[in-house]
Amino acid sequence: MYFRNIEADHKNPNPFNEEELDTYGDLSRKEWKQIYAEIDPTFSRNSNEFFRKYKRQRFNTGRSDKRRRKKWQNSLTEDAVSRNDWKYPANSWDLTGECPDNAAGETYESWNYAFGDVTIVNRTVLVDSDVNTGVVKVAEGGKLIFKDLGEGAESITFRALALKAEGGGEIWAGSRNCRYQGRLDITLYGDEDAMEQDMGVKYLHADEGGVIELHGKEKHHWTHLENHLFANSVAVEQLEWLQDRTNDGQGAWPDIDNRAGFRMVFHILSKEGDLKDTFSVPDGETDGLSDFLNQFDDEEIILFFTDFKYTLTDNFVSTLAEKGFPQAYFDTLFLSEHSKYPPEEKMMHPMTDTIGPVSLGGEKSGFDFQFEYAASWSLNGDNDALQVNSDAFETWLLDLESYTWARQIFNSLETHVTYSGSTSGQVQKITVSDDVSSWEVGDVIVVAATGKDPHHSERFTIQDCPNCLANEILLDRTANYTHWGRIDSETGIDQRAEVGLLSRNIRFFGELEDTGCQYARTREQLDSDSPNRGNNWCDYMNDMSGEDTDRHGAHMVGTKRFANFHVSHIEIFHAGQPRLARYPMHWHHAGYVGEMGGYQDPSSAISLSIHDCFSRFVTVHGTHEAIVQNNVGHLTHGHGYFLEDGFETYNHVIGNLGIGVMPGIILPTDRHFSICSDTNDMLEGYEQVPNVACDGLSVFWIAHPHNFFHDNAAVGGNAGYWVFTHTASDKYGYEALPIDPVSGRREWRNNKASAAQWGFVFQWHVQDEGVSEEFPQSQFSMLRAGPTYAAMNEEWDNGNFDPDSDDRAIADLRPNVWTSPSANWADQYFVGFKMHHIANKNTIAGAANHLEGWQVSDCFKGYELQATRNTIGSTRSIKDSTFVGFSKNTGHQRCQQLRDDTNNPKVSVDLVAPITCSDGGADSGLGPFFPKPNSFDNWSYQWYKPEGDVYRQAISNQDNKFPAIILESSLNPTFIENNRFFNFKSSSSSDNAIYAPREDDLWKRPQFMENYILKNNTYINVDRIFPATKSDGKENNFGVADIDGSPGYVLSALASTVSTDCNLVVINDELDSSNVKWCPFSTKIGQLLIETQENNEEGAGYEIYNSKSADLFSLEATQLNRANAEVTIEPFQTYSIQTVDGSPSSRVTLRVTNTGQGDWYRISWCAPTNSTLDLQAGRIFIGDDMSQYTLTRNENAVPVTLVASFNELNSASDGEIFVYDDHIER
């Protein structure tokens, strides 16, 4: 089977017909490639483009399995229904589809209890009006049912201290087959002392044997913008300038030719309306103007305007004519008879003008831009026209000292320039990706930030819109910030804003006191011997949120052996408490809550809205198999979606949105670093907890990888996703991602992060042990080093698995193919991730990780390939991904907001000098710092122009380092292929598509050679692929092999030792072109490491020779100062090393690394005749029988034996011998 030839439709966004969409179904990428190969035997890069279009067409037309899977399937599987041996059967009303408040055979009685605590047993109580009560417990056949009064009816408010279902008790509000249509508020009240502690206070609790089922009206959970939503409905950044005589920067009385106010000013904008550059020419001159304008494309926008006065010349007109401005333009615009200008015999009035609208292009096509210009001056406050002719006035201007009133006029000059648009201030109707006709007038939505600051997420209220389509919404106001809403037409990256629904018809929340913050406590304060038990961290929490408010919210929890616990389509707010184990939605040591635990209907939280909370969104603690799906979280303290203890497995966390997490207090990793040491989470006598142990705040905190994470989106956080293990996980630290039932691989798919410090990080460990001499750091803090994944050296006995105990089901043991070193050998696939506007980096530790189809843009470091040690049989890869240095989504100029001097205009102070930000605020030093993303500490935002780009927002001057991929040392093959790199404009040696930093740590040095393999990568608008030198000017000794013969790459440090099939192209700082054809390697490469033991600054240097060169390398003594020097060498040759200019070090270690299986090297050490050598061999041998590049090093060096001849040396079976030859001379 194959498609018709679709290559001709490559510009069509919907190239597939109905038959094709129905016939082929949801093809995998592998299946697609098989089909596409028949369409295009050359297998061009259009394959990926058409695959995306095919999947998108199926999704948008409702055919996608992915879309259907996102909706809850009310019907259980046939197998689940037919089985009758479930330990926890599904609810009968879920099987029959009956409505809980109108079920056959049920006898209902209305609530009729006096105020106080209530226990409901063996009766069905119907709540059909408002209730105010105490603690309510439902048990032993009791049912509490909330009557559905229907859409449009008055709401019901159920106000209680706490609410619990236990021992056969049930609490229902609707069901998944009969959803609650009316309005219901379940609000819990009271402070900490209002009731006897049970599961804390203010709880909704599904305890052992209890049932809680809350199911609101089904509404679409969250979607994406399909078009841009602009700040103030203006499609360009609303930059402002105000030029006056007090800020012209020229002094009081400059020469008239240099005086601001006598010039023509130019602004150049990109086709999207982003400022690229400014320029000015003095009155009557055009020097440099032609060269300036010729830098820019015809599609770019040229603005020019006078700063008070400019005399037109023929040269000026002809220069502009070359850029498309005809003579008639000047004849019309500058005629004295023009209505905007006064008669020739009088000076001009102050004038205001609007130019445009001008249509924008590129990623903002369909929108426009306007230019607002205003110039004013006065004489003694009088703005009327002057009764003098222009010739006389110009004479006075040339001699301002003689004409006081002319001086007053000139000194009052103000020129005000603003960028705007024809739709400025108009409320927008937005278009989204999905059918949101279920959203109602008055519902509140949140639109996520799409820049670097998650605080730019904002809420709107839906207005009545009779003419709106099913995917259109009318907002109640203009946006304060721009939210990106299109997929980039050039690169294909998707930075579209998420749009989440916050309003639901069933609401669960805590009633807050007006006394302010009551308490805020750390986890460690619960310990009986804690020196901190009486501490209260309210002041800190108030600082983090910016307000003093009560945070004693409600909380919902399911504990072990509940009968059934499902909630969907409800709203939760003012929930969670700033202390341990009190969260808005929480499974607490519930064990296995799905099939492995005997549950016919797995426990779930689906399509919840969770916002304005005080501790997390959703917590999965000591629980497996839970379903957390399609939820929307906006604003909470601490980690958002939280897997707690590090052994939670088989949970399905799918399709969730989290926006905005603020620092919390409970765990060190929740906290902002400023409070890290002060909380003193330790026993007295040990070191203070370092700040690095905190600052782990994450939207998704994933304490164990053996869970299913797909289709989630994180906005904000110190990390969007942080995946790690706990130090106490000795029994399960070997585990990797679970095998996905759809792909059959260990795979996570389609997760997105933006506006975070770290996007996706899979690294490091949390310390479970308490404080001790061995572990002096605070318990539950983040260790930025420590244990690695454990090797799987034994099989576990699964025969006695008991889901009610703390045992864990091990479903996919990996083969034990090694004993040393420890490593995680399982191949793990991370597919379709999107990482945008990340202030630090993305990284995944491990030797067998594979990235496919990633999108990475506007990140400080796109992706860092961590250094790995030897892992037999493993490979890593980055394939089919797109990396964009700078996208068209430029962010906001916040410098205007940084000004705090009310007398100083919040605008640029020179018409040709846009205001820029620096550390501490604006250029003038005025203004407060702005909040750091995800906490509320100081962080400097910058507005600046990277080289060759437009003005844009950044968190630091990221023009200095913006690599797509950072390489650290790898002793295993790493494939980087079929990727695209866009817009890496370089102004320093570290701005590259791929960057290999040179560090002192042996395992982090760029010593890769044949282990990094590049293939079929595309570079567009990229100045430099690799760096040629260190920041200190020393050369990197670096090489990459290209196995398919397409352009390879070597650096100048390799030029004299590496053979190639063509003329070697040496890349260095003088040759930055990305268009050169680099030579593929035609020889094997190894690396000789020379290491000295002690400082050698006054000692000897070394020279290295081989048969091809009389002086191959010279290494100065300072290069061997207790460090390694790397020399690239070819195998199957003899090399000699000779000391020069001093005595050799007392101990020199030689190693050969990064070589191929079976390669040999003969190293001859030329020692001075008066030296004494203690020769030992740290034997290095190839230990890999899988045709990979792997080295294993013996730990104990052994003495080397002297033999008599080279023949004896060559014929030896081991490497622990040497020959001494006193006849070699150089």
UniProtKB/TrEMBL annotation:
InterPro entries in alphabetical order: CEMIP/CEMIP2, CEMIP_beta-hel_dom, G8_domain
Tagged with keyword Phosphoprotein: no
G8 domain sequence ranges: 109-227
Protein name stated in the entry: G8 domain-containing protein
PROSITE patterns, per database record: G8
SMART domains according to UniProt: G8
Keywords: Glycoprotein
